[in-house]
Amino acid sequence: MVNRKRLNPEASPQAAFGVRLRKMREERGWIQDHLAGLVGCNGRHISAVETGRKPPTLPFARRADGSSDLAGAADSFKREWQEMRRGSLLEGFPEYVGYEGRAVEIRLFQIGIVPGLLQTQEYAQALANGDVRRGAITGEQAAERVAFLAKRQVALLRERPRMVLVVMDESCIRRPIGGPEVMDAHLRQLAGFAELPNSVLWMAHFDIGERRPFNLLVNPLTLSDRSVVAYAESHAQGHVDREGTTVLPLLTGYHQLQAESLSQANSVAMIDEVREGTL
Fold first, then answer.
1. Do 38 and 108 belong to one domain?
2. What is the pLDDT of residues 92-113, one digit of tens each?
3. Can you give the residue range of the structural domain that contains 101?
């Protein structure tokens, strides 16, 4: 019990799920390996879910209900998972963030809006406020989303920062978000990002046309063992892919996209040009 990690259910919906799972297990006098046997995993997985290091899946929630006689109950784990699913984060995204935290190289590609890791707080807040006005999320979920992004961005300032390679479609800087002042500050930050020793920035200009290989967000990550995972996102769902047969073609497409894009110097020049139009 000396190394027992203290949990904060207020930290996130994922943390709250983990706290409930631990509470249920301990009330029944079960060790993690016993619960693992009931839900079909191992003790390390139970520990990761309880401490919020791994997001629960729908099958996991259903099996947890079956092991604790909560299936169909108002306070079932399945219902809690569904509440998480309706939260501010897409399904699959928490899993991606777990890999992002362990990556040694992060590659990002985005269309329409600047990738989250490069957003100013004001830019991120403007996007979240837009979702609130449309009724897509609540004000509380918007605040959670912005705070969660801020925590991810802190990782870029670690003592040993990861290499971050970013390709942005030209639409990311042409689309006004939050008004002229927000865009001016944001574009200045992007130019500053390009000067960091652990970053490279390319703009995929409109003239690429049909040679642009991706029409949606794609983020390939290189882990410390040099394996590659990839995250792709639609409007309604995110998906982490770890299979080499599907990940490697995405990585090849990313390299082709880099080759078609503007150099970093020309990309910064384009950002400065757009910024002059926001002043």
1. no
2. 787 788 888 889 999 999 999 9
3. 93-118+158-276
